[in-house]
């Protein structure tokens, strides 16, 4: 079975400001279980938590299928290849760390490719029409200024608070210059993807996996 190899990382790869990796750092984190504090060599290890069923299925997929499945969580083909190529992941934290690292290494073109697959933030059912009009107008103003869809991670926000938060965030980010907004957008996209992966692969049951 042929596995995809991660793309070489270009020297010009763009990263959010404040995030720098030295030349000695690996492209993606190694997935090695660490010894528990105070645990001597030869001491029986504590039992490991079960690997989520969704992650087990993901680890077992052929490389091309894993890459296609990951595109449902992030539309960057390069990100999907990088994450798929570093399987198997022993636990969800290792997968999320690798997903973050791959996201930090995306070029502006990779981010644009991912943003093209994102949809507008939707209001919850039952929201009044004026809210829909206000949100549509805000999205239109944002796309006119920056040329791509507005993205924001709402994982920690209740549905009833989402409309006000989205409108406030769009108004605030409209004042950014393009470079500032590119940094902010990439970070929100990374958080969105992280949440999708956790929800898709973090289940320990045998239910359907939303992304995969």
Description of the structure:
The chain is mostly helical. It has a domain at 120-182: Oxo-4-hydroxy-4-carboxy-5-ureidoimidazoline decarboxylase (UraD-like, Orthogonal Bundle), CATH 1.10.3330.10. Helix content is 47%, strand content 0%. It has eight helices and no strands. The longest helix has 24 residues, at 178-201.
How is the secondary structure organized here?
Elements: H1 53-60, H2 63-70, H3 77-85, H4 92-104, H5 108-115, H6 129-146, H7 162-173, H8 178-201
- Morphology: globular
The counted number of beta strands is: 0
What amount of the residues lies in strands? under 5%
**CATH level 1 name of the domain at 120-182:** Mainly Alpha
CATH-derived architecture of the domain at 120-182: Orthogonal Bundle
How large is the radius of gyration? 19 Å
CATH topology annotation of the domain at 120-182: UraD-like
SSE pattern: HHHHHHHH
CATH superfamily of the domain at 120-182: Oxo-4-hydroxy-4-carboxy-5-ureidoimidazoline decarboxylase
Share in helix: 40-55%
Number of helices: 8
For the largest beta-sheet, the strand count, sense and barrel status come to: none
SSE-based structural type:
mainly alpha
Mean pLDDT, to the nearest integer, reads 79
Low-pLDDT residue spans? 1-26, 32-44, 204-211
